[in-house]
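call fold(seq) -> tokens
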Amino acid sequence: MTKRLAGDFASYGDSFDFTLHITDPDTENHMASVTLRTGPADDELSGPGTVYTLENGKKEIKVTLKGNEQLEVTGLPEGATYTIDESGTDAAKYTSTTWVFPGGTGKGTSLGQQTIGTADAAITVTNIRDAVTPTGLLLMLRPTALCWPWRWAAVRWCSASAAVIDAFRSGTPGPAGQCGGQRPGSRADGGAAGFRRVRPLAGRCRQPGRICQRGPAAI
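ret:
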């Protein structure tokens, strides 16, 4: 069985605890023992290893691996069954665990019961730990323009002789001969009743301009 890690936050310093539950169903000729070896994932394991004696055809073996390490159990006869459980503080930090075994794949912290066949069984268990996507309240601030009353607007030509006046947003259109942008002022001067600051200038008048780019007199 080979241990692999994946994900942005995976650490090869983390340790993963495994428990192997081995059972020999042959009640007449139980196997006597199995041998466990561990080492780097890409190396060929050798050496005497650790020998475990079975009791009534059963044995529980505990072993700890890190990323890119492997374990090997030899001495299992055909028909023997096993399960593998993964646990530990470091293992709990990983978001998911996948298993690849002869005949299938699985997810979770445990590999269900497997049966030894005529050939060696190769298993890969991969723990994945990715960055957690941040969630919460996103507050967006955008600048707001302050619009101030602009009492002197752009000059344009009128359809008839008129006078230069103050133009305000409120009020009603002026009389004939003046542009529709003219509005009654709050105070009238002589020469044009209902308007203030009247100055003789034939052919022109003042009207509200585009304030804050929102159209005529949008204040």
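The mean pLDDT is 74.
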